[in-house]
Amino acid sequence: MQRAGRRGRQVQEGSPMENGVRQEPGTPELPAAEDIPAPRPPRVRPRLVFHTQLAHGSPTGRIEGFTNVKELYAKIAEVFGISPTEILFCTLNTHKVDMQKLLGGQIGLEDFIFAHVRGETKEVEVTKTEDALGLTITDNGAGYAFIKRIKEGSIINRIQTVCVGDSIEAINDHTIVGCRHYEVARMLRELPRAQPFTLRLVQPKKAFGESGGSPCPCPGDG
């Protein structure tokens, strides 16, 4: 017995089909090869390559393949042959310590990443004569809290050696590396008034020829 196949093809029951595939009696005929839509090619994600430099000066490097801040720091460190723990924070499109240009959650393909690395360490003694020190603190998402703003006329503003961009490494010899910014802020708020305490700070490395001991060029607007 014969039956009409699709597209008018006559197929003997139990006879071999093309490509060595047998059709069992009573089963529908397979569609012709030209009837099967070609599979869509897999969507290829574009390679996202970013340019980077060390803020105090370096050749330009290229990085890619990171999904978070720690991976980004690791990629930058690999390019320049340094430890990821040397990086305090990154700014976009400027080598200056500009808190308006801090690297945040998004990076555009045209953005140029500048990595600010550890420079000199300094210790300052502070007496808390008011409840508020006048600091706004943020962190880099990888273990370092640093000063984002200094309020004009505040206790900290009167200490010329404390600058925006300084990383707070210890309070009274108690290391705070690994703490989030809100934890550091709470520690500073809880310090008793009228009792001096010591801040150990790490300033970003400066370019050759930049003064290391001058007052901060931008105390901030906190």
TrEMBL record:
Residue intervals of the PDZ domain: 123-190
Q: Which CDD domains does the entry mention? A: PDZ_GIPC3
> What Gene3D superfamilies does UniProt report for this protein, alphabetically?
2.30.42.10
Top-rank taxon: Eukaryota
Which SMART domains does the protein's record reference?
PDZ
Q: InterPro entries in the record, alphabetically?
A: GIPC1-3_GH1, GIPC1/2/3, PDZ, PDZ_sf
Task: Write out the ranges of the annotated region (Disordered).
Answer: 1-44
Pfam family membership, one: PDZ
Q: According to its UniProt record, which protein family does this protein belong to?
A: Belongs to the GIPC family.
Q: What is this protein called?
A: GIPC3 protein
What organism is this sequence from? Stercorarius parasiticus
Gene designation per UniProt:
Gipc3
